[in-house]
Inverse folding.
């Protein structure tokens, strides 16, 4: 594999932050509609909307959740920071599958010894299995 083919990144699908922001607006509208003069109901709706909007802002500020190059993996850290994990620090790359409510969820697990990094389909924009296969191939190269 040449150097150019080793550079790859995975990001949050662009429709996801838009859906989260629309959900925040909907929560505020429902809070106003059903508050009936109760400030607690309105405050709870506003707090939930603010949390959802903050989550959407994170997706807009730092859409790239995982990147790979010849030096290793770059993962998101904290709200919008980045952390480089050299290949030597990565102990395992696995996909965890669990049945839940009749559906199977998949999560990409990157074990870096002292830290475990988890990514869902919504973090990567594709299936965790595809990303795991790409990362394993890049690691061998």
């Amino acid at each position: 594999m040449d150097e150019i083919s080793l550079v790859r990144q995975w990001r949050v699908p662009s429709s996801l932050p838009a859906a989260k922001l629309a959900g925040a607006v909907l929560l505020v509208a429902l809070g106003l509609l059903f508050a009936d003069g109760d400030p607690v109901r309105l405050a709870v709706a506003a707090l939930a909307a603010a949390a959802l909007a903050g989550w959407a802002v994170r997706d807009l500020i730092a859409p790239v959740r995982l990147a790979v190059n010849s030096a290793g993996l770059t993962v998101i850290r904290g709200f919008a920071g980045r952390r480089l994990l050299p290949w030597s620090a990565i102990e395992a790359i696995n996909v965890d599958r669990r049945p839940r409510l009749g559906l199977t969820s998949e999560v990409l697990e990157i074990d870096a010894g002292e830290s475990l990094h988890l990514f869902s389909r919504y973090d990567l924009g594709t299936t965790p299995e595809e990303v795991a296969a790409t990362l394993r191939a890049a690691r061998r190269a």
User: Anything to note?
Assistant: The first strand starts at residue 8 and ends at 11. Residues 39-61 form the longest helix (23 residues). Confidence is low (pLDDT under 50) at residues 1-5.
